[in-house]
Amino acid sequence: MRRAYDFSKAKRVKDVPHLAKLQAAMKDKTRITIMLDNDVIEAFRTRAEQEGRGYQTAINDTLRAAIQTDNAPVTVGTLRRELKRALKDIAA
Questions:
Q1: Among 53, 58, 57, which Cα is nearest to 89's?
Q2: How far is residue 41's CA from residue 58's CA, in Å, rounded to a whole number?
Q3: DSSP string computed for 10-27
């Protein structure tokens, strides 16, 4: 690894069309850190792989469904119920 890199000829993200598009798509998202049980993550990964999409998207969709179904803030109980339902759907 070099001690220093020369970025003087680097392009800005806005000047690279596919990177600008990705950056624009991420404006409605927030990066967080969350602790989930390993079996929950594995179940979502398995389901997402079968559906041909990312497991984080599957988790997000499950949380969105919980919010829209209850029309109320997500509580620990709601989250647990929705995750159990999703895991049951995966096992079926």
A1: 58
A2: 10
A3: PPPGGGSHHHHHHHHHGG
